[in-house]
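Service request form, structural biology core

Requester: graduate student, group of Dr. S.
Request type: structure prediction, single chain
Budget code: on file
Notes: please return the result as structure tokens.

Sequence provided:
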Amino acid sequence: MRLATLRGALFSAILMLVLAPVHAQEPLKIAFVYNSPIGDAGWTYQHDQGRQAVEAKLGGNVQTAFVESVTETDVERVLRQLVNSGHELIFTTSFGFMNPTVKVAESAPEIKFQHATGYKQSDNVGVYHARAYEARYLSGVVAGEMSKTNIAGFIASFPIPEVVRGINAFTRGMRSVNPEATVKVIWINSWYDPGKERDAVEVLIAQGADVINQFTDSAAPTQAAQEHGVYSISVGSDRSKYGPDAHLTSVVYNWGDFYAEVAQQVIDDTWDSRNVWGGLKENMIGLAPLHPSIPAEVATLVETRRKEIANNEIHPFQGPVKDQSGEVRVAEGSVMTDEELLGMNWYVEGIQGDLPQ
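Core staff response, request fulfilled:
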């Protein structure tokens, strides 16, 4: 009897295990940290579009959250809070978040971090960016063809290589079709300050600029350009609704595919720390639709150049490249290396003014 009872109990236990419901894997908790409000356009808005794309593509396999308007002085606290609340993958989307990201990652080796625009990696910190200079060059072609005064104004945030590279690429594109063109730069030392951005537009227009470009994150330059009857080129996302007559195009970041790929790698336990720098070829960067007033032949030229850059047939910084003093920095037949691009700290020929050091 005891043997029969034991067998019966064993059978019941096995049956319970077989019939027990299989618990689905818990969704991957992902957090995104933004340095400005999401709003409805711009750098942060486009990152949040990428976050939403992750949810759409991976569904119940992920659970996302975000924190917006985080300052560089407060980001470490925010990151530790996200780690303590169980987030397993954290995207930090501003250059100024680099050191706090690395610091927090060191104390949380089980968490995966992805930092946008930075260069410091570790076992659990990967870095990524888009080759925005490729699209900046194309926007310069548009500006060079549309400017009547041969002067473009550029509102810049901080004098870091990323921003300098963007200004230089725009200038190179502009002068490739309009050799007499010049670019004037105003630095506002902020990523997002609508008041300063608007004031900069006023100054640049007074100096003769009829195309206003920006490496800042508010819609103020486009709105001011619309009010003053000059052209605007923006960055981050399509801002045409802010300047229906002024907005020629925008440099647009596309993060969704990359974010979904990274999340899937973490789910599959295949993620590793990488330095990703995707461009037109990878569709991590592109241009918003061109304004209808842009002549068809200009649109065709821009599309031809886009394909040539994507296919590595031309490069925005292929020689000869001269700096603003006329010194040849890249010889004819040569192309700037990624290392040189990442450390760019000088202006190309055609830019007026001094680069802050």
